[in-house]
């Protein structure tokens, strides 16, 4: 039987091995004792985005909301037909096609979406994208300002909770902005490759911006967006 200490060491070693993975979620080696998925650590200190997003918001958002999605998924998965899925993305894509797995889909997608959101942000982000990416944005949107406007419009047009995404549309061979409701994610559409996202659920901004969702989205775009993450995702697409 695995002791708590050795299990922690195992998880730490696995975490270290996967630290370079863009979406840090894994199947633990001891499935009888360890949860299937772990809450990924933030890629920066919880206060690093202050004052654009406060440490209080990050602590609640990551430590309560994101953590709850992970816990719910770990609780639901063992009693589902998705126990054999090899990855979080496979769980999302299979459960999206099955209305009976809606609760698993919601929690699995929210785990993935939040991990992607944290990576889409960085302290002292925003500003001018790297030159190749800037050229691509100019070609597909007309200008960085037009992409910004499309992002803010999508954030305010999204009715209720959801997400705004910069994606590569492989059918149209161009970058575009899409919005999704609740837990929905572009991962369920084969032709869309997510490049960055902004969480527009109220829990992402209400402590800092109250109902001013557009101000929050503008501040994230201008001051936090991680253009290097966008460029890396586009290069892999
Ligand atoms: Fe969120």
List the helices and strands and how they pair.
Elements: H1 4-17, H2 55-76, H3 88-96, H4 102-120, H5 131-141, H6 144-157, E1 162-169, E2 174-181, E3 192-199, H7 206-209, H8 213-223, H9 227-236
Antiparallel strand pairs: 1-2, 1-3
The structure holds fe (ii) ion.
- In CATH, what is the class of the largest domain? Alpha Beta
State the secondary-structure class. Answer: mainly alpha
- What Rg is obtained from the alpha carbons, in whole angstroms? 18 Å
CATH architecture of the largest domain: 3-Layer(bab) Sandwich
What's the name of the CATH homologous superfamily of the largest domain?
Iron/manganese superoxide dismutase, C-terminal domain
Biggest sheet character: 3 strands, antiparallel
Q: Give the CATH topology of the largest domain.
A: minor pseudopilin epsh fold
Terminal-residue CA separation:
43 Å
Number of domains: 2
Helix-strand string: HHHHHHEEEHHH
Write structural notes for this entry.
This protein has 237 residues and is mainly alpha-helical. It has 9 helices and 3 strands. Residues 1-31 have low confidence and may be disordered. Bound molecules: fe (ii) ion. Fe (ii) ion is lined by residues 61, 65, 114, 199, 201, 203-204.
Brief synopsis:
The protein is mostly helical and 237 residues long. It has helices at 4-17, 55-76, 88-96, 102-120, 131-141, 144-157, 206-209, 213-223, 227-236, and strands at residues 162-169, 174-181, 192-199.
């Amino acid at each position: 039987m695995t002791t708590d200490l050795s299990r922690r060491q195992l998880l730490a070693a696995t975490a270290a091995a996967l630290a370079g993975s863009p979406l840090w979620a894994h199947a633990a080696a001891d499935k009888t004792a360890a949860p299937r998925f772990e809450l990924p650590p933030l890629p920066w200190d919880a206060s690093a985005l202050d004052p654009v997003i406060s440490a209080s918001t990050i602590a609640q958002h990551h430590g309560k909301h994101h953590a709850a999605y992970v816990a719910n998924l770990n609780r639901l998965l063992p009693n589902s037909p998705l126990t054999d899925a090899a990855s979080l993305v496979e769980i999302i894509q299979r459960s999206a096609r099955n209305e009976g797995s809606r609760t698993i889909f919601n929690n699995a997608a929210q785990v993935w979406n939040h991990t992607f959101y944290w990576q889409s942000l960085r302290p002292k982000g925003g500003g001018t994208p790297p030159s190749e990416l800037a050229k691509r944005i100019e070609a597909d949107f007309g200008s960085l300002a037009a992409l910004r406007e499309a992002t803010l419009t999508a954030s305010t047009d999204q009715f209720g909770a959801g997400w705004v995404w910069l994606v590569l549309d492989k059918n149209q061979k161009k970058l575009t902005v899409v919005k999704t409701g609740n837990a929905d994610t572009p991962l369920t559409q084969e032709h869309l490759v997510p490049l960055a996202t902004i969480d527009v659920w109220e829990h992402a901004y209400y402590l800092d911006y109250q109902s001013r969702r557009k101000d929050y989205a503008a501040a994230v775009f201008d001051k936090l967006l991680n253009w290097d993450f966008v460029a890396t995702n586009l290069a892999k697409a």
